[in-house]
């Protein structure tokens, strides 16, 4: 969640900065409308987009840990205190989001109720809703709300009809509805409020352009806007004639943008979108280069030499039955007790699932996508350098700072009610990896005895 918010917020900030410092100043209103809506939706989607970029890498040997050298123990996770701070946050978030959702529904209901209460007249692609009393022209979806008295007395200028009809025909209300829905979910993000202001002003640019293109008397239209300027209507979803009667709108009415300049700024915005997509979406994946496969005879001979040296002097003790603890094997009825050198070829073949030499660990780092997955504390228990930590501690490390990571499944009978994670993962920084000599080939088995019983093969054998 945190990674999503960081990526999304960075994208919104970059897109808004580009708009305010470059695009908003140019008379390319249709493109700007598309840019604002697309960049907003893209910034919400970009954390979920992954574009794989495959690079060739040497094949790595699958790392296997000896089954008996150190019996694998599924550790019980320490009891964690309830995260009341997170609970308080979600309660506050849900409360505010609920209030905003109720307000949005109420505003929509009021506008539909107003539309139902007035006299309706078809006007082009819209319906005029004539209301009692004085009201400034404003639109919502396919409705244009007007004063009945002013309409019947022909006191409403033609420019105002064109202005409001543009809001209807270009479906500006849908843009605002999208913004309001996003504000319900992301009310804590101030950039959404800046987006709404930019989109509303863009709507006015579009409507002003429609008026000035049909009536070339720009000064007359500007005077009309000043005459109609009144305090804003308290209708968050409506487009009103006097929204932001500012210097920006007046300057834009007389401004021209050449085709060359228009092409340059449009290309710049496309480059920014492509750059952010490359930064946050492209994930480098190492594709293994096929390794040379040795012959079976060579592999056996190589393994024989290594194994003889590794297990030299180690006593192999097999029991018919037994149990295990965290530190040792408790067995009954010894069926084999020999030094490794005394084993026959048949016995070595029989116990080859046990008698293999672990290879040194090869450093590997997780991808950003994998780290995001490991942040899920309901699914993963996390250790960093041997210490059990909160999953969010991974955010303090970059992928390059992690030298190695591995994990295992926690069997159901080993999980607890408070810690039901099905997986546990260990992460090592470069210092811990090097201090533990994890990348160094072990020359000898770590104990002078290997004890096991027959059924252990079902639990610890490896492919």
From TrEMBL:
Domain Peptidase M56: 161-228
Domain of life: Bacteria
Transmembrane region(s): 6-22, 34-54, 84-105, 263-286
Keywords noted in UniProt: Membrane, Transmembrane, Transmembrane helix
InterPro entries found in the cross-reference section: Beta-lactam_resp_regulator (IPR052173), Peptidase_M56 (IPR008756)
Name this polypeptide is given: Peptidase M56 domain-containing protein
Organism: Flavobacterium cyanobacteriorum
Phylogenetic classification of the source organism: Bacteria, Pseudomonadati, Bacteroidota, Flavobacteriia, Flavobacteriales
């Amino acid at each position: 969640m945190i990674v999503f918010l960081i990526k999304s917020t960075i994208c919104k900030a970059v897109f808004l900065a580009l708009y305010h410092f470059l695009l908003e100043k140019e008379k390319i209103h249709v493109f700007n409308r598309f840019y604002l809506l697309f960049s907003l939706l893209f910034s919400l989607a970009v954390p979920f987009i992954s574009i794989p970029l495959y690079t060739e890498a040497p094949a790595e040997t699958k790392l296997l840990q000896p089954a008996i050298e150190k019996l694998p123990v599924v550790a019980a996770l320490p009891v964690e205190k309830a995260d009341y701070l997170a609970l308080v946050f979600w309660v506050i978030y849900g409360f505010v989001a609920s209030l905003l959702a109720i307000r949005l529904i109420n505003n929509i209901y009021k506008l539909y109720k107003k539309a139902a209460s007035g006299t309706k007249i078809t006007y082009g692609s819209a319906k005029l809703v004539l209301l009692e009393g004085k009201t400034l022209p404003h639109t919502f979806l396919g409705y244009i709300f007007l004063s009945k008295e002013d309409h019947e007395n022909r006191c409403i200028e033609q420019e105002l009809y064109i202005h409001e009809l543009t809001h209807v025909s270009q479906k500006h209300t849908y843009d605002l509805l999208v913004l309001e829905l996003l504000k319900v979910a992301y009310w804590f993000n101030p950039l959404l409020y800046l987006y709404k202001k930019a989109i509303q002003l863009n709507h006015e640019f579009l409507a002003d352009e429609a008026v000035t293109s049909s009536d070339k008397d720009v000064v007359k239209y500007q005077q009309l806007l000043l005459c109609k300027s009144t305090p804003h209507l308290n209708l968050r979803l409506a487009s009103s004639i006097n929204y932001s009667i500012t210097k920006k709108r007046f300057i834009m009415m007389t401004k021209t943008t050449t085709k060359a300049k228009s092409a340059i700024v449009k290309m710049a915005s496309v480059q920014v979108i492509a750059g952010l997509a490359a930064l946050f979406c492209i994930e480098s994946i190492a594709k293994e280069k096929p390794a040379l496969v040795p012959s079976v005879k060579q592999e056996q001979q190589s393994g024989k030499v290594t194994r003889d040296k590794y297990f030299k002097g180690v006593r192999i003790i097999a029991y018919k039955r037994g149990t295990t603890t965290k530190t040792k094997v408790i067995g009954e009825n010894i069926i084999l007790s020999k030094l490794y050198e005394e084993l026959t070829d048949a016995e070595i073949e029989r116990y080859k699932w046990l008698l293999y030499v672990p290879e040194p660990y090869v450093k590997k780092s997780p991808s950003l996508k994998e780290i995001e997955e490991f942040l899920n504390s309901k699914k993963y228990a996390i250790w960093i350098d041997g210490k059990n930590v909160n999953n969010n501690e991974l955010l303090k490390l970059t992928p390059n700072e992690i030298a190695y990571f591995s994990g295992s499944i926690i069997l159901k009978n080993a999980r607890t009610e408070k810690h039901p994670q099905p997986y546990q993962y260990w992460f090592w920084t470069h210092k811990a990896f090097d201090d533990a000599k994890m990348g160094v080939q072990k020359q000898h088995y770590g104990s002078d005895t290997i004890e096991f019983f027959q059924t252990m093969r079902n639990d610890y054998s490896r492919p």
